[in-house]
């Protein structure tokens, strides 16, 4: 059963990670970053490039968090519709953030090229696939708002969406040619290599368990070492519960699991996503699917891994793609998404020189990379502010209950879909 295959395709298919050691002894740098995901690694890479001395201290391995576990859709923008973004933070700030993140895939693929990162980079666009009347209405709204802002998106009708996806279960799709797919863990490892090349210091298996103010700024401590710096960035996002627990209370952690099939046959590949776009749907309990470079179907849904999810995934894949009946899964893994109350990432200055960046709400490849670069420019005095909000977040009330609500909701939905199909 797939539930026993608790291993990630991305770990199995990623080029080797750079060899890093644990933090030992005392180190002094300009900036120390806690967490080696897209945010921390991009910040380190760009800070080192701008001449700052910088160290990343990662509890596990580079890419251990959401960065190494995600779907790999390198999308433009955020989850929020552009008008919702403006309503949330104001039209001026909304436009700055929209423009920064509209260009995020360009930035990500540019870095991949610049540093020769081997991460299955495929820039054939993504498809937001419409399900039902509400799904179509959502895509029509997004299309209108995005085209008004100059985005080169296309709203595909049912016939075009169905032939691009290879399934008759969708009534529309919003195609975004700016976007694409990557192998996310390979991208994280590639960013780590690039940061090392630029002179950043990286440490793994070094959980930070104490952060203290000092006369010159801050010190972070692990069991075997300490780093003193003027500034600290907590880049731990949904994985904040370890050592920086108070940040975890600002977000609801939502589980999202994926399964990867055996490589598909040539006939299957000719009809399923022949152009290799990445796809996610408009359902409230969302699913995603894409192909990897070996022709595996990577299918994901909300909720923790387990029999309910894997049984639902097998059945849903058969419904979507009858040519794939009796799909066999080789891999199954789960990641945690940090949902903020306003669905936006925030950079909070918790105290002078102590920053926390988190709350990507499931859209972090482009945003994490761009925010890392902006942090470097901001610290170097090259920009006055960041594109993302810098407001302090409050603790989310009933956070654990909300987490359970989403988890139970996802399971009930998946069970309901199965029994509906069986009846
Ligand atoms: C299943 C899933 C699917 C997703 N799909 C997409 C997608 O298709 N497209 C997209 O754009 N985004 C997607 N996202 C979101 C995206 O992956 C995240 O927003 C992004 O990875 C966040 O990067 P980060 O560097 O901020 O945090 P992370 O990558 O989570 O890194 C945080 C790191 O901090 C480390 N850490 C925690 N505590 C400590 C400590 N005390 N000391 C040292 N280190 C510590 C952790 O070990 C971890 O490695 C998805 C997320 C998930 C979970």
From TrEMBL:
Pfam families: DAO. Residues 30-378 form the FAD dependent oxidoreductase domain. PANTHER family: GAMMA-GLUTAMYLPUTRESCINE OXIDOREDUCTASE (PTHR13847:SF275), SARCOSINE DEHYDROGENASE-RELATED (PTHR13847). InterPro entries: FAD-dep_OxRdtase (IPR006076), FAD/NAD-bd_sf (IPR036188). Keywords: Oxidoreductase. The lineage of its organism: Bacteria, Pseudomonadati, Pseudomonadota, Gammaproteobacteria, Oceanospirillales. The keyword Oxidoreductase applies. This is FAD-binding oxidoreductase.
């Amino acid at each position: 059963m797939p539930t026993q295959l608790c291993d990630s395709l991305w770990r199995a298919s990623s080029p080797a990670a750079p060899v890093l050691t644990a933090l030992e002894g005392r180190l002094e740098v300009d900036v120390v970053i806690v967490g080696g995901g897209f945010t921390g690694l991009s910040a380190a890479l760009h800070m080192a490039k701008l001449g700052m001395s910088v160290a990343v201290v990662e509890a596990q391995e580079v890419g251990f968090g959401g960065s190494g576990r995600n779907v790999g859709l390198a999308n433009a923008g955020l989850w929020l519709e552009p008008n919702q973004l403006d309503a949330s933070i104001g039209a001026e700030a909304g436009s700055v953030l929209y423009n920064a993140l509209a260009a995020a895939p360009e930035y990500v693929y540019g870095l991949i090229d610049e540093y020769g990162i081997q991460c299955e980079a495929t820039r054939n666009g993504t498809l937001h696939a419409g399900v039902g009347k509400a799904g179509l209405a959502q895509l029509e709204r997004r299309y209108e708002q995005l085209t008004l802002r100059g985005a080169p998106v296309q709203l595909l009708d049912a016939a075009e969406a169905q032939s691009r996806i290879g399934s008759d279960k969708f009534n529309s799709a919003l195609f975004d040619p700016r976007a694409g797919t990557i192998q996310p863990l390979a991208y994280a490892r590639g960013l780590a290599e690039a940061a090392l090349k630029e002179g950043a210091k990286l440490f793994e298996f070094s959980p930070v368990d104490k952060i203290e103010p000092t006369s010159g700024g801050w010190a972070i401590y692990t069991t075997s070492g300490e780093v003193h710096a003027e500034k600290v960035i907590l880049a731990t996002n949904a994985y904040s519960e370890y050592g920086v627990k108070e940040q975890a209370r600002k977000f609801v952690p939502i589980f999202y699991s994926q399964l990867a099939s055996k490589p598909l046959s040539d006939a299957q590949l000719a009809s399923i996503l022949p152009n290799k776009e990445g796809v996610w749907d408009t359902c409230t309990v969302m699913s995603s699917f894409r192909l990897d470079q070996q022709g595996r179907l990577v299918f994901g849904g909300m909720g923790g891994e387990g029999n309910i999810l894997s049984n639902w995934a097998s059945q849903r894949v058969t419904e979507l793609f009858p040519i794939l009946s009796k799909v066999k899964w080789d891999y199954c893994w789960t990641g945690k998404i940090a949902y903020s109350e306003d669905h936006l990432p925030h950079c909070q200055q918790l105290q002078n020189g102590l920053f926390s960046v988190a709350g990507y709400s499931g859209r972090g490849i482009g945003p994490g990379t761009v925010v890392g670069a902006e942090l470097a420019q901001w610290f170097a005095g090259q920009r006055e502010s960041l594109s993302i909000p810098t407001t302090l977040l409050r603790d989310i009330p009933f956070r654990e209950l909300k987490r359970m609500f989403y988890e139970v909701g996802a399971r009930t939905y998946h069970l309901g879909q199965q029994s509906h199909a069986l009846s």
